[in-house]
Every structure is written in C-alpha cells, then in structure tokens.
C-alpha cells in the first residue's frame, strides 16, 4: 500500500518514516504520483493552519482514504475533517504503530475518530436508546443478513479489525471484506462507523 503525505517539510517526521517506509512526502496534492496504486493520503495540519488550506486540491473521489495529521487534534477538528470528506484525523506525532492502525482502519473502509470522540458517541447512543427504546427494539437490521453476516457485523460493532474477525471466525480477510460489502449493501450503509451505530441501536 502506498502512502502520500502532504506537508510543507519534505523531510517528514521520524514516526512517519518508521510507520511507512517509502512514503512519498509532497508539498501539495498536485505533486502526488502513482495514484493508480491503492493507498492512503495523509494531510498534515500544522498549528495555526486552516483545515481547508491543507485539504486544498485533494481529490476525495479518487478512492483513496484521506487522513488529517494534526499537530493539535481535538474533537471539533475531527468532526470538521470528517465533514470535509476525510476518513479520519489523528495526532501528527502519533506512534508508528498507531499510524499503522489508522492506515489499516481507513484502508478497510472504516473511519478513525479517536478514542475520546468514540466514547462520546457511544454515550450519546446509549442516551438515545434510553429516550427512544421502542424505536431501537423495532430496528430489525439482523433480519436482512445471513447468519455469518450477522456474526461479522456484531464483531465490527465491537471494534474488531478485519484481521481479528478473520481469525475469530476462521475465515480469510478477503472473505471478511466480501461479507462487509454485502452488509453495507443490504443495510444501505456507507462505512463501519455507521454499521456500529446501527447495530448499537442508533438509526442512521
């Protein structure tokens, strides 16, 4: 998988090189090469910069997930990044293993929103369920799926990666991806976050 990192410093940060050896660091989206390969586009947001500035020129329709690397990430920025079309937002100085987890998540069609925002959303889901229990109970998403698809969907809702799901169900990652595609189509959902919210009782 190819990684393109848009940043004004062509040297990049050490953690980026450790996480993604061979990553291409460019000063603008127009300088990226080899976009016919699968990969992830990373855009660094430095302190004081405007989000729209670092996302300028990025083609969100290319099929490559976009992640904002922020020097000062917070929940408001994460939501703004997702609204702009990004698949996630994380600290630009995150540990290499975290960056690889982010790449795996967005590469598999998921979103990366950070632990604190995820917990807040789960809390909001629980609150909504408490206020509208009848609606949650009447939502029969499982009726639309096969037994195996229901297993996969519940594991996704629990935060498992494709690799973890494959190991737990003793199937290949390719089969997991095929199930995910079928689940999204049957439930008319876009990504793993929507699926998690749906299974946990929040209508999307």
TrEMBL record:
- This protein is called Response regulator transcription factor
GO process terms (BP): regulation of DNA-templated transcription
The record's listing under SMART domains reads: HTH_LUXR
Domain of life according to the entry: Bacteria
Keywords (A to Z) from UniProt? DNA-binding
- GO MF: DNA binding
Instruction: Identify the Gene3D superfamilies for this entry.
Output: 3.40.50.2300
- InterPro entries cross-referenced by the UniProt entry: Sig_transdc_resp-reg_C-effctor, Tscrpt_reg_LuxR_C, WalR-like
One Pfam entry for this protein is GerE
Cell membrane found in the keyword field = no
Q: Which residues form the HTH luxR-type domain?
A: 138-203
């Amino acid at each position: 998988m190819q990684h393109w990192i848009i940043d004004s410093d062509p040297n990049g940060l050490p953690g980026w090189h450790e996480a993604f050896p061979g990553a291409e660091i460019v000063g603008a989206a127009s300088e990226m090469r080899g976009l016919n390969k699968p990969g992830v586009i990373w855009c660094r947001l430095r302190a004081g910069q405007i989000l729209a500035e670092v996302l300028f020129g990025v083609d969100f329709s290319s099929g490559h997930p976009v992640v904002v690397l922020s020097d000062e990430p917070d929940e408001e920025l994460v939501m703004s990044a997702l609204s702009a079309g990004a698949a996630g937002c994380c600290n630009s100085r995150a540990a290499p293993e975290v960056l690889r987890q982010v790449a795996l998540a967005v590469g598999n069609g998921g979103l990366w929103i950070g632990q604190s925002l995820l917990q807040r959303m789960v809390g909001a889901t629980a609150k909504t369920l408490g206020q509208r229990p009848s609606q949650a109970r009447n939502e029969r998403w499982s009726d639309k799926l096969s037994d195996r698809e229901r297993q996969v969907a519940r594991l996704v809702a629990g935060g498992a990666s494709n690799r973890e799901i494959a190991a737990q169900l003793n199937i290949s990652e390719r089969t997991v991806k095929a199930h995910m595609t079928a689940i999204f189509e049957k439930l008319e959902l876009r990504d793993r976050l929507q699926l998690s919210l749906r299974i946990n009782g929040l209508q999307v």
